[in-house]
Amino acid sequence: MRTPSSRSRQAAALAALAMTAAALAAPTPAQGNVAGTLTDAFAPQLVTVDTPSRAAKSRLQALGLDLTEHAGHDYVEVVLHSAADRLALLAAGFTYDVRIPDLLAREGEINRLDDLFAATTLRTALPSGRDSYRSLADYNSQMRAMADANPGLVRLLTLPEKTLDGRTVLGVEIARDVTARDGRPTFAMFGVHHAREWPSGEHAMEFAVDLVKGARAGDPRISGLLERGRMVVVPVVNPDGFSLSFNDGQLVDLRETDGGGTATILGTPGNAYKRKNCRVVDGQDTPDGTCAVFSATANGGYGVGVDPNRNYGGLWGGPGASDLFADPTYRGAGPFSEPETRNVRHLISTRQVTMMISNHTFSNLVLRPNGVNPTTIGPDGLPVGDAPDEQALKDLGARMTAQNGYANIHGWELYDTTGTTEDWSYNATGGYGYTFEIGPDEFHPPFAQVVDEYVGAGQYAGKGNREAYLIAFESAVSRASHAVISGKAPAGATLRLRKEFTTPTWSPANDFTDSLETTMVTSGKTFAWDVNQSTRPVVQSRLVKLLDDEPTRSETFTGTAAPGSSVDHELVVTEADQEILQVDLDWPTPDDLDLEVYRRNADGSLTEVGGSGNFVGDKERATINAPTPGTYVLRVINFASVTPTYTLTAALFDATEQTTAPQVEAWTLTCEKDGRVLQSVPVVVERGQQVSVDLKECTRRWAR
Ligand SMILES: [Zn+2]
């Protein structure tokens, strides 16, 4: 439903508020009945929610609904799992269009399309030729078979921790002479952090198959990459969640076959659209299978679990991650509280991972760090700023998106996130990290689309994610993009690089000790080791803009807006080079006025440039970065305030640029024989730099 005029939108919002109030006022048993009836009748939906401003996005995020990664400047797509979700959206004054009215019916339709596709397709253009989604068993048996059939080229990896439901997480490592303990860099790729995002595992797995086929066929480009680097693929990081989503997703087929459904499956929609892992109780490993039982009664399972892509340690607990268990972006009880994220952390901490891609669905995006808007004040009291490697990350992102047609943007341009894979991996290691949001419009679309996104279709035919991944692999092995430590050492010596440091979270109380430790064994008298830079990006010098304490100029307006109406005020900005325009709205009672800020275009039309829609009781502030001179319209909207008289203050602030103090960190390099340290030296090395290390002491003592 979309109600275009803002007046009718407000009327709808007020009506919804009244409905909610009535429901809340009803005695508990009746409320239970109403909720039960609504839940039974409600099929999960995918809807496009209107979010004309960043403030609206923040307000939407705060509702705890299941937001997808599909969002634009004025909308976010959301999964509504229940009637309660829909009521929450309406009560908060949001309008939306329904895009997929019944996700379970769509699931059945996809299954039917996939059966047809498989029945009519002998072999797809995928490296494996597959014509249908893999099950967890398919992934695991295929990885075992690849390793068995390709000794010396493929090695099966068993990640250190089992999942909460007792599953082993497998991966493959692919390189020429894969078992050698040499100094080559690693490109690590992950899939299925989020249970329902099946193509994210398919593309990771297909890339592994692609590399193995290429190596066996003597493809010069692929052979060259596997000479110079190593590929590690973990296609299913969250096998507990994935198997629930996949198995329930297949089950919906039963409903399709009897012409529209049985009450049983409608009543317990299952986990086809589950997002998180199988944590049922924080801090406890409940008996295996508890998650499935619990999920069957809990809104399709989406409320159960920790969001693995908010549980990484980097900036853990900040914006865009919830502290409420039932929320889709629940960050977990602490940084790295979950076995899935600890597995990935272990893998990245024990290798020199110079490139990391974490695959997700959907929205055709390549996201780069940071996960929060650069103006956000971070845990150190300064604006978070851009990543120190912003230009290089952006350039590489552009080269990759030229292959798949995706948008090349910062994580925060979608919406704020913290505790994601690259928030930690990039900031702790310096290795580049990206999130791929694969596919235009669904979590697990008909399989034919998985093929198209991988090999490329239309103007991207022959490119696609395959070519983007190859470009990423080329960057992973390029010495211009990481660092090299070289020198002379005794043949057969174990070299160890180690660092220990504190990883900052969003609040100092949660900061924790982190360590990176990798080894190589020298094969001759000289060695060259491809490594990440010694100083972490998170403590590298960065440019931040600090606002002046006093405004350059400020203007105050007072007015009255009757309930359900809005009032416009105009502000003319003549000053150039102002850092921000800050508009504050204040009024006497703890209820709800909203604020929207527009810039008037040459033709008189208005473009929204900012706004603030806090919850009832919070006052409103809109911040517009770098306001260009011109006329601004400040719109005060009365959603539900009983005292419509307000004060509006618009202030322009200049800022002082400041470069944060650079910190320099060193690796500790040790040269060891039979576990005995013969020499230990600090090594400072920057990205793109090659340093030579003198290990004479190790050589001298080696002979004794
Ligand atoms: Zn995801």
Rg, nearest Å: 27 Å
Number of strands: 29
Number of helices: 17
Biggest sheet strand line-up: 5-6-8-7-9-12-10-11
Largest sheet: 8 strands, mixed
Task: Describe the global form.
Answer: globular
The mean pLDDT is 87
The amount of helix comes to 25-40%
End-to-end C-alpha gap: 81 Å
Regarding quaternary structure, what we see is single chain
Question: What is the percentage of strand-forming residues?
Answer: 25-35%
Structural description of this entry:
- The chain is an alpha+beta fold.
- The strands form 7 sheets. An 8-stranded mixed β-sheet has the order 5-6-8-7-9-12-10-11, sandwiched between helices. A 4-stranded antiparallel β-sheet has the order 2-3-1-4.
- Bound molecules: zinc ion.
- Zinc ion binds at residues 193-194, 197, 309, 360.
Name its key features.
binds zinc ion, 8-stranded mixed β-sheet, about 30% helix, globular, about 700 residues, 4-stranded antiparallel β-sheet, disordered N terminus, alpha+beta
Topology diagram in text:
Blueprint: H1 6-25, H2 28-41, E1 45-50, H3 54-61, E2 66-72, E3 75-80, H4 83-91, E4 96-100, H5 103-120, H6 136-149, E5 154-158, E6 170-174, E7 186-190, H7 199-217, H8 220-228, E8 230-234, H9 239-257, H10 263-267, H11 290-296, H12 339-349, E9 353-360, E10 365-368, H13 390-404, E11 407-410, H14 421-429, E12 432-437, H15 447-455, H16 464-477, E13 483-488, E14 494-503, E15 512-521, E16 526-531, E17 543-547, E18 553-560, E19 566-573, E20 580-586, E21 593-600, E22 606-612, E23 620-625, E24 630-638, E25 645-653, E26 655-659, E27 667-673, E28 676-683, E29 690-694, H17 696-702
Helix pairs in contact: 1-4, 5-9, 13-16, 15-16
Bound molecules: zinc ion.
The site of zinc ion (ZN) has 5 residues, from loops.
